[in-house]
Structure formats: structure tokens, C-alpha cells
Design brief:
single chain; about 450 residues; alpha/beta; 14 helices; globular
């Protein structure tokens, strides 16, 4: 980070301190000596209550609210009207000073995977500043800029998330993208939206900045034409389903073939990753890399190093049982894709899905769970439903006369699994993050 005086100057505050700064921090559990601690207000806790702890842990300075009149424990303190705005302002200035081209990725499903794929492709040719994980919120994105700096990056690769309209636009103010990607739209955080089309328009805010020269978006987004007309930047579509898209990827016996409306087709070596839906994510990444100057040959070579992020179709074998840990999060679209990715069981063992609740769906919840239930009938032999909101899945399976189990709490879930599972079985773990279904692995 900048030194303390530079931070104060950028925040229109005069504080005398020559202390060097390491990283920005908003959580004392993660604070390291030399960090600048931002005392963010919160619904349940207030960062100002942790200033003493931050001082004891070696914070080099604080950014606190003008309304805070308590002790600063001998640590230099910058007081500002809005602490969140302060961390966003510093991130904006930091990014501007790098001079890097900005690539931004959003989408209801697949944005972290696509971001990781883009990073892998670009790092074979460019210096890339990006943060692993899903630091994509109003707090997470500025932290990812401030704490994952490169001295002279060519490209800054950022993920942008939303749970309500207008949030992407605020992130675009901090990090205006040169190239922006929408992986897809789905009923995720849907409790704050009236329709899937409304989610699409909220995601389309990523194309809104005058600096953005290229938008890359899923051809299957329902209101793609409306989204394309909502902002002036040039846009290209991609698909693994429709050859009408600007970029179309099809799987052949010995290769992946990418065809385009305005370029000759190219062949890509088959990917060494699970899940056919990840071909969709790869195609978005490849288009971004291509428009940043990589050749198809360079993309093909770099694609051999692709890996999925943690808790995305991770294969873990325990006690002779194959677990597919896809428990990072869940939506109707991602659960269906995970079910389709379960390998055939052959003559040995059952295929079982542990399906946790899909949360934050509002009025769409029952129907989304029911649709997942219907879809799962075609891919697994039995289902274990976890959490009250997953009951529509159970109802579908009961109506079909198929074996289904229900658990309201984790202990019951484990009891059901231990009585059901046998060596040779394959088990998918999939649910919203708060279900913590990855903890099932600790019980076997």
C-alpha cells in the first residue's frame, strides 16, 4: 500500500505519520503487523469496537469515522465521513496508478471459475494482478486491489458480484473495465429481483463505463438483446449450445472446436477438467485472452494448465466412497450442471446426491428446488435433502416413488449417510455455502 501520509492525502485528511503500510484489513482475525485497519460499520459488529485489538496486533494505522471519539490507542488515525468509501477510493487510485488494462468478470454462476481460467491463460504471456478466491463485493473488490498488488502489471483481473441492483455499477466506478464478461444469468440472490431479466440488466451494469471497449456475454441470456442495447460498448456472444453465437464451442472426439461468425475455426486440445459446463467458462476466458492479443495456439497451450477452484467438482475418496465436493455454493443452474457431471457408476455402487438448500431465492425458492428435484431423477439413484427449503426436492422424489431421505440438521444428515453409503458409491455434495456440506468429508 501507499505510506500513511499518502493515504491521508488521498482521503483529504492531514495526519502526520511516516509509518510504512503493508496491507489493508477490515477483520482483526486476519490483521498482520503493519496493516492499515479500516473500522467498517456493520449490521452486527462495528469495526470501531476492535481498534484496541488492532493496535495490540500491530496495526500501523486506522481509518475511522468522523463520528468516532474514542481512544486510538496511540496509533495514527485518519478520520473520514465514510469508511467504506475511503477503502474504495484508495483502491481506485491504486488501480489507476498501475496503468493496467482491467478485465472484469461477473455472472450468476461460474464467475470465479472463469476468472481463474482467464488468469491461467493470461499469465502465460502477461503480468497479471488478481486475487484468488471470490473477493467480489463492495468490500472484497477494493481489498483485492490493495492487497494483491504487482509492481508493474499488464492486466488487472477482477471479479464483480452483486446481491442487489446498482452494486455492479459501484464496483465499475472503482475499477472501470477495458473488457467485461458476463458468464451467465440465473436465479441467484433472486430474493432482491422480480425476474431473471432484471438480474440480467443488473449484471449488464458491468458494460456501462465509457472506458469499456468490449463486452463478452452468454448467448443464452434470455434478454440478451435488451442487455446489448443498454450500453454502447461492442459486444460478442459465446455459447456451447448455439452456432448462432459469435463464438461457438463444440466437443468432438479428439478436440474442442471453436467456430466464429467472423474468424476461421480453431481446434483446442480437450480440457483436463471435470464438468461439461466448464467448457462454457473456458470459452469466455479464451475470448478474453484472444482479444488481449493471445493467439489460439498460445491459448491452447496455456489451457493445459487449467484447474478448477476449490470445492468445485473436487474428487475425494474416503472409505472406498467417491465424494464429488461441489459444495462451494448452489443455484438451480449450478446444481443441474453438477448432477450432469456425476460419472456413470457402471456395475458398481450407487450414485447419490446430497442436496442442500439453495438460499436467497425469495418467491422463486419452491419452484427452483422442485426443478432440481425433477432433474436429479435422471442422474442419481437416491437423494438426501438437507434443510427445510429443500423439501420440494423430497416431494418430487416421493411422488416418483424413488428413495429419498430428509435431514433438518447436520447430525441427522450424517446418520442417514452412514446408514446409506457403501464402498463403491459415488456421492455429490451440493448446496448453498451456509450449508457447509464440505464438512461431510470429515465424518468418513
Amino acid at each position: 500500500m501507499k505510506n500513511f501520509n499518502e493515504c491521508a492525502y488521498l482521503l483529504n485528511t492531514s495526519v502526520e505519520s511516516n509509518k510504512p503500510l503493508n496491507n489493508a484489513c477490515v477483520d482483526t482475525r486476519l490483521l498482520q503487523p503493519g496493516d492499515l485497519f479500516f473500522a467498517l460499520p456493520g449490521d452486527k459488529t462495528d469495526g470501531h469496537s476492535f481498534l484496541g485489538q488492532a493496535a495490540a496486533l500491530g496495526a500501523a494505522g486506522f481509518v475511522a469515522s468522523l463520528d468516532y471519539h474514542g481512544s486510538t490507542y496511540g496509533v495514527p488515525c485518519i478520520r473520514v465521513p465514510d469508511v467504506l468509501k475511503a477503502i474504495q477510493t484508495l483502491a481506485k487510485h491504486t488501480l489507476e496508478e498501475t496503468g493496467a488494462q482491467v478485465v472484469a468478470v461477473t455472472g450468476s454462476v461460474g464467475k470465479t471459475t472463469t476468472k481463474e481460467f482467464i488468469a491461467t491463460l493470461l499469465q502465460s504471456k502477461f503480468r497479471v494482478m488478481y486475487s484468488p478466491g471470490n473477493s467480489n463485493s463492495q468490500i472484497g473488490l477494493p481489498l483485492s486491489i490493495l492487497n494483491n498488488r504487482d509492481n508493474n502489471p499488464d492486466i488487472a483481473l477482477l471479479e464483480m458480484g452483486l446481491s442487489a441492483k446498482g452494486q455492479i455499477a459501484k464496483l465499475v466506478e472503482i475499477a472501470p473495465p477495458d473488457i467485461a464478461v458476463i458468464t451467465t444469468t440465473a436465479l441467484v440472490h433472486a430474493e432482491n429481483f422480480e425476474s431473471l431479466e432484471a438480474i440480467g440488466l443488473a449484471k449488464a451494469e458491468i458494460f456501462s463505463h465509457p472506458k469499456t471497449r468490449l463486452g463478452i456475454l452468454d448467448h443464452e441470456i434470455p434478454n440478451i438483446q435488451e442487455i446489448c442495447l443498454a450500453s454502447p460498448c461492442f459486444k460478442v456472444s459465446f455459447s456451447t449450445k448455439s452456432s448462432a453465437a459469435d463464438y461457438y464451442l463444440m466437443e468432438e472426439k479428439n478436440c474442442l472446436r471453436i467456430k466464429g461468425q467472423k474468424f476461421s475455426e480453431t481446434e483446442i486440445t480437450p480440457l483436463r477438467i471435470c464438468g461439461k459446463h466448464n467448457y462454457h467458462n473456458f470459452l469466455a476466458a479464451a475470448i478474453a485472452a484472444r482479444h488481449l492479443g493471445m493467439t489460439w495456439e498460445e491459448i491452447d497451450n496455456a489451457a493445459r494448465n487449467l484447474n478448477l477452484p476449490k470445492m468445485r467438482l473436487e474428487i475425494v475418496e474416503k472409505s472406498g466412497i467417491v465424494f464429488i465436493n461441489d459444495s462451494y455454493n448452489a443455484s438451480e443452474k449450478s446444481v443441474k450442471a453438477a448432477l450432469e457431471s456425476i460419472p456413470g457408476s457402471g456395475n458398481k455402487g450407487k450414485r447419490i446426491a446430497v442436496l442442500g438448500e439453495m438460499l436467497e431465492l425469495g418467491k422463486f425458492s419452491d419452484n427452483c428446488h422442485r426443478e432440481v428435484g425433477k432433474h436429479s431423477l435422471n442422474f442419481v439413484d437416491a437423494v438426501v435433502c438437507y434443510g427445510e427449503k429443500s423439501k420440494p426436492i423430497q416431494e418430487v422424489w416421493l411422488e416418483a416413488g424413488r428413495p429419498v431421505f430428509f435431514a433438518r440438521n447436520f447430525n441427522t444428515l450424517i446418520d442417514n449417510l452412514k446408514s446409506l453409503l457403501k464402498e463403491g458409491d459415488t456421492v455429490l455434495l451440493k448446496g448453498s455455502r451456509s450449508n457447509s456440506l464440505w464438512k461431510v468429508l470429515d465424518e468418513f
